[in-house]
Amino acid sequence: MSLILVFLMIFPSVICENRYSTCNTDSNYTEESTYSTNLNLVLNDLSRNAPLNSGFSMSSHGQFPNKVYGLLQCIGSVAGETCSECLSVAYNMITDRCGNGIGGEVWMGDCFLRYDNSSFFSTLDTTFFLVRNEQVVIGNLQGFVSTTPSLLSNLSAQALQNNGSAMGSANYSSLLKVYGLVECLRDLSMEDCSSCLSRARQELVQCCTSNQGAQVMSGSCTVRYELYPFFDSASAKAISHAKSKKSSRRLLMILGITISLMVVLVGCCFLMLRKAITTVSRKVATIEKQSGETRLFTKEQIAFSLETLIEATKHFSQCNKLGEGGFGPVYKGTTRDGKEIAVKKLSARSAQGRKEFMNEVELVANIQHRNLVNLLGCCSEETERMLVYEYMPNKSLDTFLFDPFKRRTLDWQKRFNIIIGIARGLLYLHEDSQLRIIHRDIKAGNILLDENLNPKIADFGLARLFSDNETEIQSRVAGTYGYMAPEYAMGGQLSVKADVYSFGVLLLEIVSGRKNTEIGISKENQSLGLLEWAWRLFKGGHALKVVDIMLVGNCSEEQVIRCIHIGLLCTQANPDNRPMISSVYTMISSKSVPLPDPTRPAFVSMASQSPSISFIPITSSGNEISISELKPRF
């Protein structure tokens, strides 16, 4: 009975969770059938027995034609509840892809699951599937190309002496390692295991001599390598020792060697950390500025070593990439103590980005507010410049607001809370922090959401410091089209009212679910941008037509109309007519505060869908900034 390939999850540039699945859909079973009952009995056996049998279990139940055969194997570093949890995820994946097909198999990152209506136990399968990281190795490629096959060959030899499983690492340069894992299903003979691993290694060598990671999988074995430790090395060692059946004397000798290596490693790490802190401190000293008794940051707050961030982000794996802006890419990372972080990495091609880096460190290191993303530190080693922030699991507001499916999760109460939070964060920047800060790039993409969808303003690379009631003429204008105030975009006049304008645009986007550049059509068949469209509907007494259709009937009409009114007040053409952010916050928070009639907003005609504003002296990049002196407010 043939297995039909139905799914192979290959990411465009990298393996994120290496897994593939196949299905036997020659026939299907129903939920109340005898086959379904037997399948549940097999799955229960696997879940119960695998954790008790070093992560491996085989089971069968029933009589032909409703007999079910099942096998579960967790990789060498996975055991106990984690193995059972992997079974649950694997089964859900099979049923998602195969429905009620009578058979299926899946390789997850941590386990292999297969079931079918005919026996496949102890049968060699050399139909291989490949996933790989399309990013090439940077740094000592020659050493990597020679080291990786040797590592996998050595691990295969170890696996044949260790029940078909081995994992480890090897240096391909003085500082860089490659990590490998080989695994056979334990019901295979060692002869079949050797054959399967040999074929799998050949597949890797033929396809992936310079890739940063790859995995070959079949129904009998898998071989994988990465530039980061993708397995739990401590657990792997413990389980490997338990399976090895060597003498207690050898175990004690290995333990002694391990302790010695740990002592050496701790000493090396201490020396490297001290060197990293010294390096960062020297770099930071060149950008540290003081005003009176105010110090913007301390050296202790920002010492992250390059090695720490490489490890946390798994060598800046594309799997961990959260996004990319004018500054450079942002990666998710996890530190050794389990703390999740977001690492913003300066693009090596952006000379202007170095100014943004220094600007952001100076401005954000000591500002703390629940609606501002918390800067944990930075790294400045060799040619690398990186900022380390708290990790925000729900990414940015635009990923929800402008997605037709995710937007459904943003009911009116959640949107209103986001509006309030953004206003509160801007109020802190403009009036409550010691230094008046103008963000200059308030937009949906720079509003990050925590696990509860609470908003936090991010990306201070373009931010400026101002004294009270100051307007400054900027020779270089930077920001995002559609959010920039007209007096700033066309004349370089920057004040806190520029942020108020951007907030008004964002407020209307949140209420309407539309991008500010999204075109609407008037009764006269005119193409209108969001501001003009909202203005005409509001003045015509049809403000509710601005509201996102997903909110209709599920929101306070009075509240949404009030928010539209406030958004139009914030986007008035004359900056003197726009309210200060403190007034905006009060108007949003209190229904009793009267709202003045808004004058006509500033908007750009949508007759041309050009991505930039014509006749305005502005660069096309969001990286152009000018760093002013620090001006504290007392």
In summary, what is this structure?
The model is unreliable at 1-18, 233-251, 273-301 and 604-634 (pLDDT under 50). The chain is elongated. By secondary structure, the chain is α+β, with helices and mostly antiparallel strands.
Please tag this protein with its features:
634 residues; alpha+beta; Killer Toxin P4, Chain A; Phosphorylase Kinase, domain 1; 4 domains; 6-stranded antiparallel beta sheet; 15 helices
Task: Walk me through the structure.
It is built from 15 helices and 26 strands. It is α+β, with helices and mostly antiparallel strands and 634 residues long. It folds into four domains: 4-116, Gnk2 domain, C-X8-C-X2-C motif (Killer Toxin P4, Chain A), CATH 3.30.430; 129-245, Killer Toxin P4, Chain A; 290-390, Phosphorylase Kinase, domain 1; 397-589, Transferase(Phosphotransferase) domain 1 (Transferase(Phosphotransferase), domain 1, Orthogonal Bundle), CATH 1.10.510. The strands form eight sheets. It has a six-stranded antiparallel beta sheet, with helices on one face. A hairpin with a 3-residue loop joins strand 5 and strand 6. Helix 10 (412-432) packs antiparallel against helix 12 (496-512), helix 10 runs antiparallel to helix 15 (581-589) and helix 12 (496-512) runs antiparallel to helix 14 (557-570). The longest helix is centred in the middle third of the chain and has 38 residues, at 248-285. The N and C termini lie far apart (80 Å). The model is unreliable at 1-18, 233-251, 273-301 and 604-634 (pLDDT under 50).
